[in-house]
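BUG: 3D viewer hangs when loading the predicted structure for this chain

Environment: internal workstation, default settings.
Expected: structure renders.
Actual: progress bar stalls at 90%.

Input used:
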Amino acid sequence: MSPAGKREATVSGGAPAAPMQADRANALEVIAPTIVESKAAASASAQPTGARRFSAAAAPAVGADTLGHLPAREKVTAPRRFSLTPQLSPPVVAGLAFGLCGMLAAATLQHTLAGFAKEGGASPLVFLAVPGLFAALFAILVYQGALQNVTSMAQSFSRALLVALLTWASFSALATSVWCRPEHYSQCYSSFLIVSGLIGGGPMLLAAGTAGAIVGWWVLKRRR
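Structure tokens produced before the viewer hung:
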């Protein structure tokens, strides 16, 4: 009988086919774990390169033109920092600092200012509160645009000195209007400028310097 006939007889008979199938099953059981491990290693080694290729091909180059055509919700923005303190403007901070320091400076001269107020027929609280209010008002005006213009502590001190001079002149004008008659206003004003400068010049300059340092530090910190 020819070899083809033998194979047909073997297949048709069915008896020798069972051992062959068993051998194939055993071989697959032995080879299958090796094939699975080799595929896993190949996929693990090829994954970073493929991911990089996919990200480079899928993500187009983002430029000014691309961002201009994107919707507003797709534009990338820097995350905002959470702060417990509100973002105050420099004039508001300057007004608070100079107002508080001005009132503290007036409080150190409480007995002298109270005596002047009683002699002029005014309330002592007015003479204690007015220097701080004048300082806060002029600080708000002088420190406008400080976030862009103040670049050093010396510039903040120069503005603080201007606030102190304006406060001194305004307080002297108010005290002159309380003490003197209108016809003698100019003469009394010059005299009161000298007296108020000698008595309250030191505390007022110290208060202005402290407030100027606080505002200057805050502005320079905001500029960073």
